[in-house]
Write a structure and sequence with these properties.
CATH superfamily of the largest domain: Glycogen Phosphorylase B
Radius of gyration: 29 Å
Oligomer: single chain
Number of strands: 28
Structural class: alpha/beta
Bound molecules: pyridoxal-5'-phosphate
Largest sheet: 10 strands, mixed
Number of helices: 31
CATH class of the largest domain: Alpha Beta
Length: 841
Amino acid sequence: MHQSVFDEFKTSHHKEMALLEKLALDMRWSWNHEADTIWRQIDPSLWRMTKNPWMVLQRVSVERLAYVFSQPHFLAQLDEINQRREEAQSKISWFKQVHPDSALKRVAYFSMEFMLDEALPIYVGGLGNVAGDQLKAASELGVPVTGVGLFYQQGYFRQEIDRHGNQLVRQPYNEPGQMPVSPLRNANGEWLRVPVRFGGFTIWLKCWVVIAGRVRLYLLDSNDPANLPVHRTITNEIYSGGPEHRIKQELILGVGGWRMLQALGEIPEVCHLNEGHAAFLVLERANWYKETYGVSFWEALELTRPGNVFTTHTAVPAGFDRFDRSLITHYLGDYAEKELHISADSLMNLGKLNPGDSSELFNMAFLAIRGSGGINGVSKLHGEVSRALFSPLFPRWPLAEVPIGHVTNGVHMASWDGKFSDRLWTEACGKDRWRGDLETVSSNLAKVPSVDLWNMRNEARAHLVNFARRHMANQYRLSGQEQLACDAEKMFSKDALTLGFARRFVAYKRSSLLLMKRERLAALLRNTDRPVQLMLAGKAGPGDQVGLSFIRQWMDFINEYGLHHRIAFLSDYDMAVAKQLVRGVDVWLNTPKRPWEASGTSGMKVLVNGGLNLSTLDGWWAEAYESRFGWALGDQENHEQDPYWDEKEAEELISLLENQVVPSFYERNAAGVPERWTEKIRHSMAELTPRFSANRAVREYTEAYYIPAASRYVERALQNGERSEAFLQDRFKLIADWGNIRFGGQVWIAEANQVEVSLEVWLGDMNPDWIEFQLFADPSGQFGSEIHEFGLTHYEAKTENTHYGIRIDTPRPREHYSIRMLPKLAGLNCPLELPLIRWWE
Ligand SMILES: *Cc1c(COP(=O)(O)O)cnc(C)c1O
């Protein structure tokens, strides 16, 4: 009866309702605020609480809708906003403009988590942040990316902090009907469901779609009544349970994810694996190719791998997902034998360093590497760290040539800027500033007068203080501390230097480093002439005793020193809390143990808002830091083994605060502006914001990874069946003939500034076009590394010796050089796809 009232109303206001639904389901609202006024008019209080347009639309009454629809200005606004949205969608994008004829038509981006907005809580932290921000930037740049992930109805836990500093775990159920997701339907209009078989059962996966501007995010959900109850809960929570739960989720992401794309007929040229979690995808992609083109699994893997791009986010071996043999056999044994037609052992070997070693676990990152045509770390330093971590897969290759590059992460600035910084940027650089190539952004922002920068900072800080007061009043009331709750409206000052520290509380982030200097910290916080305040937030993994103890240590510190008015631990760190903090703080602190922080992204979020960074020289800050931008801890070296290093960095941190940060914040000119400080803001905002934006990162992925991957994949796997057959045969023959090559004599003539070498080699059956000889020198002293190719000087027949020669001008002594032989087959990506190398001793 009531439903029918609503349905009738919807029918009679079909046009307006359709517009509202379209707007509410496009998560572009998480970074574009044009339509906020619409939702505010429909339900001001629900809008303020949730910032979720879809929820507002689900809850609204017919009377209220009838009322707003009767307002001509509302209807006019709705029309105009929709028009602007459509214009933005159809505007020619960076990708179309710069790469109009690219082979790249579709990238599928696989990730266990996506952080798009707090209204869709399917994320934990950094990894989801990278995925979500890159989808948004892809939308604005017009890069044809589709996300693939899991739909967790309980997401990640919500955090409560009790009066003793204990973390309490809350797990509210998120009703899909109130989240901005819709059923993903196939061409027949059916709700798409895809099957995955493991452990002897078929699991049906329901598919959902999220719209974010020009991109789509598809989500898989095992909560389908056709499944057994145990299987319905597989996708309940993110990263919950042990390895057995994890392997099921990863099979759903990789195998189910590919099948979903296949069922939709949306086969991508490029699959991007965000971390090793998604690596089972390479198996299913090859399986699809094998079935479609009638080749073997191994051939299919070689033909499809150029189309896979793998981004590793881990800086230490312990960070990789590993599964033991029994799990692989149980969950993938049948899949290997009945579907891929390979043995479970050979599948197991794809995840091992040493295929013969029965004690080795199955490493998802190794599978990802063996199935990808391009690999990258997430900062310059992390690229180096990853080359060292994965070098055992490339035996005898110099570290510098381990085929792992880097694309430093960036954040989606339009999602993280606040209203005050947005206003300032819009005046300096226009509304479309993050949609193009960013060329003029720096120079325009650099012209903003100091006093404007400073006013913006004061407004933003005041806004944060208001938020923190409301948040802490609730939090203290919840934990039964009524007096503190009442006092919360007076806590913090709108003018005081505000430090922020928020992140996951795990050991390597050393969240309690500052507490090693508690007396001096307390003195800073108590100072009334030059007041300093500190806002903290972060969740600890429910079983992580170290992380949990960090939270308690901070709460003990606050209680013991009675510093409630100057320092607060804000509960339930999520995207909403993060936004408030990064918009308002003056200084963002970060203290990871180098080199554990692969990149870090939260510090990038303060850039656009004029916050400054004080951080360990790790991850992104190791490549960004210069003294004109902020402050640094450490010396660009790793000191993991040094038991005194934490103490040393704690001392450095507190001294920096005492001697540099606080004095320069409070040093004011006649107009009350701290000029040394605003100069830093100007440099940091103007120069670092574009460099560490997701816009830059996505353009880099597109040009350095996606487009080359698409071309190589199309070239190898799609263009011409005969050619791919020839490629496979050549590759096979190259490997067979490689071992039969015999090195004969070498003659060196070293004169002043010249080295001349000739070689005699017996090639056997090897095609001379498929190998090359190189004169190689490592970097040494003032000299860089050198690679020179030998020329073929004499080749007659297979039975004869072949001669190679080279002459180079060089000031280096002969001892610097060595001779090596490499494969060089057209289209083969060495050493990634074939890590053969022979050094001629
Ligand atoms: C940005 C963000 C992160 C990632 O921060 P790090 O710099 O990697 O510590 C984690 N959680 C939330 C809620 C965030 O917004």
